Amino acid sequence: MSPGKHAAMGMTGGALIYVVSRNVALSVGFFVGSWIIDLDHVWEYWRMNHFKKPFAVKDFLKFNDALTEKFINGQPWLHVLFLHSIEFLLLILALGLYGVLSGMVIHLILDDIFLYRYVKGNFLKRAHSIVEYYIRSRVFKEQKYEDIYS
């Protein structure tokens, strides 16, 4: 899903949570969790540009669209994003940030629905765990981004 769609989902979900619960912390937490999770895409942008390109929103969005296009129409690669990982969700759970956690979980569900619909059956190329990524890339030698597009 695009960042704009995630933001709209986060605002809508946060507003609904507030209407039902009147809990500002839970509502704001949901909104923050639903979009802050995508900050690891900024890291991906810098890493794949070899840390040489300064961050600019316009360039980042172009990069994200191009990467998504390659992933959908090209050969999907194995990848893991730390903020999208089970390990990070467990940390958020341990911290008791339930609103943030709920926003992140909904975000991940929507991401997986998008990948399932548009990546022609290869949606499992995103590892949902750092341990899973390690096993799949080292033991099963699945192709990573660097193997395909560098």
Structure description:
The chain has 150 residues and is mainly alpha-helical. It has one domain. It contains eight helices and no strands. The longest helix has 21 residues. It is globular, with a radius of gyration of 16 Å.
Fill in the keyword field for this structure.
150 residues, mainly alpha, 8 helices
Query: What's the overall geometry?
Result: globular
The poorly predicted ranges are none
Question: How much is the average pLDDT?
Answer: 84
Annotation, overall tally of beta strands: 0
Q: Approximately what portion of the residues adopt beta-strand conformation?
A: under 5%
- Helix/sheet category: mainly alpha
Measured on Cα atoms, how large is the radius of gyration? 16 Å
| Main beta sheet | none
Instruction: Work out the helicity level.
Output: 55-70%
Q: Helical segment tally?
A: 8
Q: Helix and strand succession?
A: HHHHHHHH
Total domain units: 1
Termini separation (Å)? 25 Å
In short:
The protein is mostly helical and 150 residues long. The protein has helices at residues 3-21, 24-36, 40-48, 57-73, 86-94, 98-118, 130-139, 145-149. It is globular, with a radius of gyration of 16 Å.
Layout of strands and helices, then pairs:
Layout: H1 3-21, H2 24-36, H3 40-48, H4 57-73, H5 86-94, H6 98-118, H7 130-139, H8 145-149
Helix pairs in contact: 1-2, 2-6
